Amino acid sequence: MAQITSCSEEKNVTDPAQKLSEPAVRSSVILSGCETERRCIEIGPYFQPVTDRSVHDVLYVDCCDEGELQRKFFENPEAAGKVLPTIDAVWAPGRSLADCISHEPFYYAVASRVFEHVPDPLGWLQEILDVLQPGGVIALVIPDHRRTIDYFRTPTTFSQVIGWSVEKPIRPTPTQVMEFLSETFEDDSTIDFDGEIQPFHELKRHYTDDDALGFAQFVEREKYYLDVHCTVWTPESFVDVFSRVITLGQLGCEIIGPVDGFVGNGSEEFLVYLQKNEPTKASLSSGV
User: Fold this and answer.
1) In Å, how far are 12, 44, 149, 245, 265 from 259, measured between CA atoms?
2) Residue 210 placed within a domain
3) pLDDT of residue 236
4) What is the number of structural domains in the chain?
5) Residue 252 is part of which domain span?
6) Is residue 116 situated within a structural domain?
7) Which residue in 143, 162, 165, 257 has a CA-CA distance of 20 to 30 Å to 230?
8) Where are the extended beta strands (E) located within the chain?
9) In the sheet where 253-260 sits, what is the strand order?
10) Contacts of 100 (CB under 8 A, 6+ apart)
11) Biggest alpha carbon distance in the chain?
12) Which of 254, 230, 276, 247 lies closest to 120 in space, CA to CA?
């Protein structure tokens, strides 16, 4: 596995000619833990892919089809001046990733600001690991909820992750929808997450409690996929939860990181790698 570039190494670059744009720096740090000369998959690239199709041998995958992505793209003010890359495969809810990509072998996977949207995070990670070669890496960029509109939410727990892996929801559950809509606030870019934040009831909200209840009932009644932050994390909570998941034998990988506040990003996200285990002699002899 390639060595992860440290934050201090990136900050010591003083030659302006060597400096990259912020998105390029961010991508280079994320990919520093991956074998970038090999074939990869990027999940949910939207209009800010980490990989570059002109440089990397990459397959772009999303849970939405091209029409839905185009609709979201044109409705998103942050997409102004950006380009929406063509999606190569749709990972439709309820279908395995391997089936959606024709069982191609990959050596690393990238998902930036996607993980928190997934209703069954353990099942999702298992499916990505299934399409990676042994030793392959998943690079995850995840928001630290303490610096986002999820500030007041409680970090996702081990029992929730395991429970969802048993229930296998293919869309955000009414509880996940209710929690997101009723416990988040509107960030107008004036919130100082390093300072003292107003009590929740004093902040402006996108949705009232009545709205949250109505949407939760709607998604259950209509089996509708409402895109919300299903889970919330800190670097510490991610490592704690998934170390227990791995010890329980539910995920065949090793955690590398996390890298908190890495160069090229804001302090609101962290980077972590999951490296797929090499097969044991026992599994090789049994044909597993």
Assistant:
1) 17, 21, 21, 20, 11
2) no
3) 96
4) 1
5) 7-168+229-286
6) yes
7) 257
8) 40-43, 58-62, 89-90, 106-112, 132-143, 253-260, 269-276
9) 89-90, 58-62, 40-43, 106-112, 132-143, 269-276, 253-260
10) 61, 89, 90, 91, 92
11) 62
12) 230
Instruction: Please give the pLDDT value at position 266.
Output: 63
Q: Provide the residue type at 186 as one letter.
A: E
Is 253 domain-assigned? yes
* Residue showing tokens 């996940």: 176
pLDDT band at 21 (very low <50, low <70, confident <90, very high): low
Burial of 201 (0-12, 13-18, 19+ CB in 10 A): exposed
Is there a domain that residue 174 lies in? no
pLDDT tens-digit series, residues 204-225: 999 999 999 999 999 999 999 9
Residue 86's CB is within 10 A of a number of other CB atoms, namely: 10
Residue whose entry in the numeric block shows the structure tokens 């955690």:
255
How far is it, in rounded angstroms, from Cα 166 to Cα 159?
Answer: 11
Q: Which two tokens stand for residue 135?
A: 């030793």
Q: Whole-prediction pTM value?
A: 0.87
3-state helix, strand, coil in the chain (%, to 5): 40, 15, 45
Q: Which of 277, 279, 264, 225 is nearest to 63 (CA)?
A: 225
42 φ/ψ angles, rounded to the nearest 5 degrees: -115, 130
CA distance linking residue 276 with residue 274, whole number of Å: 6
| Chain centroid, CA 57 distance in Å | 20
Spacing of C-alpha 279 from chain mean position:
26
Is residue 159 a contact partner of residue 129, using CB atoms and an 8 Å limit?
A: no
- Tokens describing residue 13: 């670059």
Q: What integer pLDDT is reported at residue 268 of this predicted model?
A: 87
Distance CA 123, CA 7 (A): 32
Distance CA 66, CA 71 (A): 9
The CATH number of the domain where 274 resides is what? 3.40.50.150
Under the banding of pLDDT at 50, 70 and 90, the label for residue 16 is very low
Residue with tokens 């670097």: 235
